[in-house]
Amino acid sequence: MAEPAPLVLVEREPERRIATALLNRPDRLNALNAELMGELADALRSFDDDEDVRCIVIGGSDRAFAAGADIGEMATASAMDMYAAKRIERWDAIRAVRTPIVAAVSGYCLGGGCELAMTCDLIVASESAVFGQPETGLGILPGAGATQRLTHAVGKALAMDVILSGRLLSAREALDAGLVARVVAREAWLDEAKRVAGQIAAKGPVANRLAKEAVNRAYEAPLSLGLDYERRVLYLAFASEDAKEGLSAFVEKRPPEFKGR
User: Fold this and answer.
1) For residue 244, what is the domain's CATH number?
2) Which residues are catalytic?
3) Mean pLDDT to the nearest integer, 229-246
């Protein structure tokens, strides 16, 4: 009997120092069930522990990044089932990844899929991408971060519209609202995401990780605390070998050779 296909397709590109995790549940539009989320969390932990991986891409397919959580899996679950299974806690593994993550989004990016994309550090979207949070139409509400992250990204008024009315946002609307970083041609969503990831990976890995932490602190904390944190991680970056190399390379007019230390 043939082995079932993996729910997450993993690829490393050592020459670009990037790694890709593609959701692979095409018959369900990459609906996020517990098994898929477990495989994704394992892949991300492996990438994050690999010094040769300096940026990660998470994607789906042309038709769907992920059309939401697996409703069939949730429909019969009680509150205690959800609590015992630590369903939402799996998302903490993504938030804990220190390596920068680019979401490559094409097609449907709804419910848990939209929340997964927002957990990444930036979103590269195809012109075909559609973003939304339809949970209230099922009598529930977003529970993996959308009420918070979407509001931070697009503001209260638009977040209320998307979450309460079920409004869908096109890729261009998402770009204009600040949810998406870049919109590209339909056929270019994965290539462009990998290109952006390669640009990120070419920078100082220590600096990138610290900068990611600092930007996230700005997202989550008052300005005064964020500024204090930024100053601390700047001094920490100056203690790295990468900083010495990058600054010396600039003075010597040569490409830097970052080691991630």
Assistant:
1) 1.10.12.10
2) 69, 112, 115, 135
3) 75
Tens digit of each residue's pLDDT (9 = 90 or more) over 37-75: 999 999 999 999 999 999 999 999 999 999 987 666 665
Q: What secondary structure does DSSP assign to 9-36, as a single string?
A: EEEEETTTTEEEEEE--GGGTT-B-HHH
How far the first Cα of the chain sits from its last, in Å, is 47
> 115 φ, ψ to 5°?
-65, -40
What is d(CA 47, CA 19) in angstroms, rounded to the nearest whole number? 7
Q: Do residue 223 and residue 122 come from a single domain?
A: no
Q: Could you tell me if 148 and 93 lie in one domain?
A: yes
Residues near 22 by Cβ (< 8 Å), separated by ≥ 6? 8, 9, 11, 58, 59, 60, 61
Domain boundary (159, 182, 201) is at 201
Domain hosting residue 246, numbered range: 205-252
- Domains in the chain: how many in total? 2
Q: Does residue 212 form part of some domain?
A: yes
Bigger pLDDT: 185 or 245?
Answer: 185
Strands 122-126 and 8-13, by their bridges, are: unpaired
**110: closest CA among 155, 72, 60, 151?**
60
- Residue 10 in contact with residue 43, Cβ under 8 Å? yes
Q: Residue 165 corresponds to which amino acid?
A: S
